[in-house]
Design goal:
Chain lengths: 302, 442
């Protein structure tokens, strides 16, 4: 029996087994990712508040949050914010990546400098970006964007005080931040496309647009899909930039799901309410990721 | 030559190490980056402070210097104690209050900490704070609005509220010669100012998504006699007369924007610094600001420009209504179960912050007598601030207040952008606040 147990132990921890070398990773994942996630799930099933010590397990918080009409307004705002951000970041990232790639092939000078400039937006913390854009879009007579418009004879634009424009403004700020990341991924993808494909197309007399449509896009598809997943998740989680820019206002016009979660916990002290919103966010992220994954599989790229 | 270079490198290294050690105050010093008192002192107390109220204040050197002197003096006078500091960046103080509440709940709060006056009542209600050993005379000397919050029904003081502030109406006298007494006068004066100078905004106030919007504008509700919550802490601002008062307040703000007296931009204002920027750019005739904006305005505006400014009490709906103003500020509270540490927390607060800390920061004292005894407050303007404090009203320290505040911020935003009528906005905010109250009661 002892020998059997020994064998089992050796089998489990033998050098050809992954158990031993995966153990540290599993420990880290369990401690820092799984445990907090389970705690969030647990709190969502309570009525916990930061303002009292005791709480009970209940589904009431879920029912209250899900039956709150504000949630659906927030989800609508979040959907517009995420979809617009993803589409614009992909399209603009692709345009810049193609331009940079062509410039690289033609050995134009200053490409490293240009990539660095574009990347600088991505490495800046979200809070700083929010503050920078709040200075640019300030509606006072000394606001930067309105000063520029005034120089061309245009009147003041209510960038942040009109609900629809405020939502557009946070999308623009988010796209400004995220396009660099999208560009880098797609630039890497473009470099991996064999030149022979374009040479063969050239022999066949393909135009630039046909090259782009029939070679570049199909070859880039796996990268594009991964890009879409990553941008979607990071945009869903964005609140650090919106907080200093609009705080979610005017009213609730720019309050996206992640910002509402932050507000519910840190402004309204509702731990359970915030946990329910976090679970909803997790659910949305998981559904989207599974959908994208399925799409990738069906295209045979995964 | 090589030996010479090596010597230079060594010297430089020694200087760098010595510099770092000196910058940190040295391990044997009385004051380091994170400690007050000697390292080998036998007794230890953990203290959590906002960065502003420490020797590490990076934005105002005079505050850093002032607190460095006060901390060093305290350390010399209390050689048996070392205070281990946890310093909170100023941008995180709001979040930190939530964390502190959570830490207190699980018994891991620091022994002594800065607590925001607008949430301190929740700490008291939870039993997180210990009564401070202060005399009845000290308690009696405080402004009434302070006692209402920090002195519990048992007559004990659970936090030392040492710094406060008030909201006032700042105006440029070249554009608005007379201080408006009523809301109507304010709107008319603002419009008249715009006619005199088309580049200025008539009246600026906080209208964005942040606590300042609720807090500042609640003065207009309180001055009518409005009450946010009843004795049990239940929201009542959407019922009976209170609903009328709240709708009046919303109508006033809406009228200010719709009439052009205020720009629509007010719904984006989430920082008092916007008013100072507008004053510097000479693009505002009047704004509702805090007393704490007086010193920076005095410093930053050219003297001839600053001379044009006067400060007055906030206008009200009717000419005879009391000119109520909102008051905020910071307290110190003791979380420790050890009576000796509670006593030391009170002593630290009294020696460093009460009076002395007001002198360093210029933040208003909570005891009217200190206005007379401290040099900092001898400018005649402080008589006005002191008078305003007698009309001071603190936010109700009830668990549902954060929800009420959030809902009112949203309500003001939706009214000013025309997304909701004042009635709809007030009713929506009230319904949500009541729902949160019922949830908290479970």
């Amino acid at each position: 029996m002892a020998a059997k147990r020994g064998m089992g132990f050796r089998t489990l921890l033998g050098e050809n087994r992954p158990t031993l070398w995966m153990a540290p990773l599993l420990a880290v994942v369990t401690l820092f990712y799984l445990y907090p996630a389970i705690e969030v799930l647990r709190y969502s099933l309570t009525n916990a508040s930061l303002q009292r010590a005791d709480y009970v397990y209940t589904l009431d918080t879920f029912i209250r949050v899900l039956s709150d009409p504000v949630l659906y307004e927030v989800l609508k705002t979040t959907a517009i914010f995420v979809i617009a951000s993803v589409v614009l970041q992909i399209v603009l990232g692709l345009i810049i990546a193609v331009a940079v790639n062509r410039a690289r092939k033609r050995r134009l000078p200053g490409m490293v400098f240009m990539r660095s400039i574009v990347l600088s937006a991505w490495v800046m913390p979200g809070v700083v970006i929010g503050i920078v854009w709040s200075i640019v879009l300030n509606e006072a007579p000394y606001g930067l964007a309105n000063l520029v418009l005034a120089a061309f004879g245009f009147g003041n634009v209510p960038w942040l005080s009109t609900p629809s424009l405020a939502l557009m403004s946070i999308i623009v700020a988010n796209v400004w931040r995220g396009t660099a990341f999208s560009m880098i991924l797609q630039y890497a993808g473009l470099q991996s496309i064999p030149d022979e494909l374009y040479e063969a197309a050239k022999v066949d007399g393909a135009s630039v647009l046909q090259n782009f449509w029939y070679i570049t896009i199909p070859q880039l598809r796996p990268i594009l899909m991964i890009n879409v997943i990553l941008i979607t998740i990071s945009t869903l989680n964005t609140f650090d930039m919106i907080l200093p820019l609009t705080g979610g206002g005017p009213g609730q016009a720019t309050e996206v799901l992640s910002l509402r979660t932050y507000n519910v916990i840190f402004q309204q002290y509702s731990l359970a309410g915030g946990a329910v919103l976090a679970v909803i966010m997790l659910f949305i992220s998981m559904v989207l990721t599974l959908a994208y994954r399925r799409l990738l599989r069906s295209e045979g790229t995964l | 030559m090589n030996a010479w270079i090596r010597l230079c490198v060594r010297l430089a290294l020694v200087l760098v190490v010595a510099g770092i050690a000196m910058g940190c105050g040295g391990s044997g010093g009385l004051l380091t980056l994170d400690r007050i008192g000697k390292e080998d002192a036998p007794k230890t107390m953990t203290v959590q402070l906002n960065n502003s109220y420490t020797h590490q204040n990076a934005t105002t050197q005079s505050w850093a210097d002032g607190f460095e002197k006060l901390f060093t003096k305290f350390a010399k006078e209390h050689p048996d104690w070392k205070l281990e500091l946890k310093i909170i960046p100023d941008a995180q103080t709001t979040q930190e209050q939530a964390r502190l509440l959570e830490q207190a709940r699980v018994g891991r709060a620091p022994d002594c900490a800065n607590v925001d006056s607008f949430v301190v009542a929740q700490f008291i209600e939870q039993g997180a704070l210990k009564p401070l050993p202060v005399s009845q005379e000290e308690i009696d000397g405080l402004f009434p609005f302070v006692k209402d919050v920090v002195v519990d029904d048992d007559g004990k003081m659970y936090a030392y509220w040492w710094a406060t502030d008030v909201r006032m109406l700042y105006r440029r006298t070249d554009l608005v010669p007379e201080a408006p007494r009523t809301w109507d006068e304010l709107i008319q004066s603002a419009k008249a100012a715009k006619q005199k100078d088309s580049k200025v905004d008539g009246y600026l106030f906080n209208g964005g998504r942040w606590e300042g919007t609720t807090f500042d504008n609640l003065a207009h509700f309180w001055s009518q006699g409005g009450e946010l919550v009843d004795d049990q802490g239940k929201p009542i601002f959407g019922e009976g007369k209170n609903r009328t008062y709240m709708i009046n307040m919303m109508n006033f703000l809406k009228e200010a924007v719709d009439s052009g007296a205020s720009p629509k931009q007010v719904v984006t204002i989430t920082d008092y610094a916007e008013f100072e920027a507008a004053a510097q750019a000479q693009t505002v005739a009047m704004f509702q600001g805090g007393d704490f904006q007086y010193p920076p305005l005095k410093e930053s505006l050219p003297p001839e420009q600053f001379k044009k400014y006067e400060i007055s009490l906030l206008p009200t709906m009717n000419p005879n209504d009391p000119q109520t103003t909102g008051t905020g500020g910071w307290t110190m509270g003791a979380f420790s179960d050890d009576p000796e540490k509670v006593k030391m927390c009170a002593e630290f607060t009294k020696d460093v912050y009460v009076g002395a800390g007001n002198q360093v920061t210029g933040q208003l004292p909570t005891n009217p007598e200190l206005f007379d005894s401290l040099d900092k407050f001898q400018d005649p303007i402080y008589d006005q601030f002191k008078e305003a404090l007698t009309y001071g009203e603190a936010r109700p320290g009830v668990p549902v207040y954060p929800e009420i505040s959030t809902q009112l911020q949203i309500a003001i935003g939706t009214v000013l952008t025309g997304e909701a009528t004042p009635e709809e906005a007030v009713d929506t905010a009230y319904k949500a606040s009541l729902s949160a109250y019922n949830e908290l009661k479970k």
